[in-house]
Amino acid sequence: MTNVQDDYVLSIQGMSKTFGRNRVLDHITLNLRRGSVMGLMGENGAGKSTMMKCLFGTYQKDEGTIVLDGKEISFSGPKDALENGIAMVHQELNQCLERNVVDNLFLGRYPKNAMGLVDEARMRKEANELFRRLGMTVNLSQPMRTMSVSQRQMCEIAKAISYNAKVIVLDEPSSSLMAQEVDKLFHMMRMLREQGISLIYISHKMDEIFEICDEVSVLRDGNLVMTKRTDETNMNELISAMVGRSLDNRFPPVDNIPGDPVLKVQHLSTKYEPHLQDVSFEVRRGEIFGLYGLVGAGRTELLETIFGIRTRAAGRVYFRDHLMTFNTARDAMDHGFALITEERKANGLFLKGDLTFNTTIANLDQYKSGLALSNDKMVRATNREIKTMNTKCMGPDDLISSLSGGNQQKVIFGKWLERYPQVFLMDEPTRGIDVGAKYEIYELIIQMAKQGTTVIVVSSEMPEILGITNRIGVMSNGRLSGIVDTKATDQEELLRLSAKYL
Fold this sequence. Notes:
There is one protein chain. The chain has helices at residues 48-55, 78-83, 101-106, 120-133, 149-162, 179-194, 206-212, 235-243, 299-306, 329-334, 344-347, 355-360, 375-389, 405-417, 435-450, 462-467, 491-498; strands at residues 8-19, 22-33, 37-42, 63-68, 71-73, 86-89, 167-171, 198-202, 215-220, 223-229, 261-270, 279-284, 288-292, 312-319, 322-324, 337-340, 368-369, 372-373, 423-427, 454-458, 471-476, 479-485. The protein has 502 residues and is an alpha/beta fold. It has three domains: 4-243, Rossmann fold; 249-336 and 421-502, Rossmann fold; 353-419, no CATH class. The strands form five sheets. It has a six-stranded mixed beta sheet. A six-stranded mixed beta sheet has the order 16-19-20-13-21-22, with helices on both faces. The protein has a four-stranded antiparallel beta sheet with strand order 2-1-4-5, with helices on one face. The radius of gyration is 24 Å and the shape is globular. The model has no long low-confidence stretch (mean pLDDT 90).
């Protein structure tokens, strides 16, 4: 009779981890079947990252055992884990962008010939065999910097396979991919599954979990609260497991009532690539105006041009009938504009700073006593925004880098709320955020609009753009291809408009 344990390539039993008085993992038990895809979900801060860091040896677990292929293991770090058959493809790819594909594939383990020199012929032969096995056509001499995120991601998966990985962890792999690229990723995952490789798929996107995963496990507050086959559960049960309550609707009611037009963009074009071409539209006071389009359509460039950080070639922006001639982001901020950028870690946060620094940095004049900054005022402001945004943290002194992605995004929102913006530009404000935190941000956006703030939201998630906006402008190849009323449109019309100028 076959032992049930033989079905599992990886078994985590009773894993616990505590930081100070905060128990982050509480006796987690998770079993991964051979040749299967396990979805791993949970709110930001639920413990997913900590569990992976304990698995890969970045953190040392306090309790529990990890069994790989029937042997109890404990890794000293990610390199040790990789060499023993467990690999992780991170959301933010860790690659040498100036080097080519082959160099990245063999980085740190270049094979040597009989003369002690790097055996480039062997490297190319093994790389070609590897990519052929994976059904990929790759230019081995191509620098990584010139490749798309999707191509670089595939190379990272190939590197894991080259280590004979038994288990591959994919962390939010689709967050920067277009729909066609996600299809390619899923095709490769199915191929790996057929070859007996097991995968852990970390994602907040429930439709993807149901499409690609055999099972799904949910973490909440450091506890594993659910493991089920995906064909035996549904979206509502997953949401309830993640947030500890039932969300009857994915989006709050959009009950704001827009007023008169206050923001007018007229014939806007940009000087440098990627170009915007003759973009014109109006947004009303207290309106939530969505911007949709394919990757590279010009949505981010439009927000950045309005905000003054891209150079205009032509066109004007009016706010309340006053011409806005922003040359810098500071000019825009001084006129009541705010911008949440797409890449929060690259240009939205000071990762070496604490919550107080990141909350108050955009509004320092408000926290002065005389000529000097008042630490008391700054801490009070930070505590105010922690409470308003329901940010999960120990306090204002926490390093921003110690927070989950969703809580980091809440700090960014809090920073701008301290300035009471009149026009709030948001570029992918819920990217990489769990369903519970998303709902809270949706409620905040709607509440801001009800209080008169004009909001422009860029989103690549079509259900989101249809779920929280009043109207939607669709970008196509740097041009505005149409503006539709959200209640009167559908996904087909948005896709048609997004392809209008391709």
